[in-house]
Amino acid sequence: MRRRGSPISGAAAMDNLVTISGLHAGYGNAQVLFGVDLALPRGQVSTLMGRNGMGKTTTIRCLMGLLPPTAGEVRIGGTDMTGAPPYTIAQAGLGLVPEGRHVFPSLSVSENLRATARAVPGGWTEARVFDAFPRLAQRRRNLGFQLSGGEQQMLAIARALMTNPDLLILDEATEGLAPLLREEIWTMLFRLKQDGLSILLVDKNLQELSRISDRYAVIEKGEIVWSGDSADFDAQRAHVESFLHL
Ligand SMILES: Nc1ncnc2c1ncn2[C@@H]1O[C@H](COP(=O)(O)OP(=O)(O)OP(=O)(O)O)[C@@H](O)[C@H]1O
Ligand SMILES: [Mg+2]
Questions:
Q1: Domain for residue 183, yes or no?
Q2: pLDDT in the model for residue 1
Q3: I need a labelling partner for 10 at 20 to 30 A (CA). Which of 16, 114, 193, 229 fits?
Q4: What distance in angstroms lies between residue 212's CA and the mean position of ligand 1's atoms?
């Protein structure tokens, strides 16, 4: 097990920021998750992979309090947060860049950033965000709906950073973006990783994922069917890819 910045070693001492166990959830009568187990170590980049419709976004929705699980447990920093509402989860330090962006269309870039901001000493501020995302600085007075898809995605990431999360969750953040913009986002994620931020990624770009991730899990039909660290992923890559049908 690879761990960074910890004075103690061994699986028992594993410092997980989030632990999901035995999670069941669905929509109406349609059950989607059948006992998801997922641990997100502090200070690491974790990746959740899986084909379309396997339950990645549903897992994230349960984690963020957007969908109540029917069974199982979500622990954040050791505290049971199962079924807590989204604002409580956000206060507990989880920040989401949702699938499909969802910036506020009638608010300006600045207003979008401030709407959900949570100030922390030495943390992300509007000035720091504009420094990191010069495009957003140029567009600060534009309304959400006036931005390009790429600019909206940057705004969604910047807005999540303004909540100063302990765990940043990105659900398909590079989906449908031009290559240059994708590159900008991966570069930003590398910088955040270097700063020690814990990150959960859902993405389809295995090449980029394999450069940044420390932990991997594959979900299939609502169950985690494979998980491992970078060394496991490298050694078993063909096996992992067989789940993804690449
Ligand atoms: N709001 C909803 N109402 C009913 N069924 C839903 C809803 N959202 C998702 N589902 C269904 O739940 C299953 C899992 O969907 P989910 O969005 O979690 O998959 P995913 O792994 O994120 O897929 P993708 O890679 O396409 O984003 C799918 O069968 C999907 O059709
Ligand atoms: Mg999804």
A1: no
A2: 39
A3: 193
A4: 26
CATH of the domain at 225: 3.40.50.300
User: How high is the pLDDT of residue 246?
Assistant: 55
What is the count of structural domains for the chain? Answer: 1
pLDDT of amino acid 11 = 44
Q: Identify the segments of the chain with pLDDT beneath 70.
A: 1-14, 246
Give rounded-to-5 percent helix, strand, coil for the chain. 35, 25, 35
Ligand 1 atom 31, closest CA: 53
The whole-angstrom separation of Cα 66 and Cα 75 is 15
Cα–ligand 2 centroid distance for 53 (angstroms)? 7
Asked if residue 32 has its Cβ within 6 Å of ligand 1, the reply is yes
For ligand 1, whether the C-beta of 58 sits within 6 Å is yes
Which ligand is nearest the CA of 219, by number?
1
Alpha-helical (H) ranges within the chain are 56-63, 86-91, 109-115, 126-132, 134-138, 149-161, 179-194, 206-212, 230-235, 237-244
CA of 27 to the centre of ligand 1 (A): 9
Cβ of 203 closer than 6 Å to ligand 1, yes or no, is no
pTM: 0.92
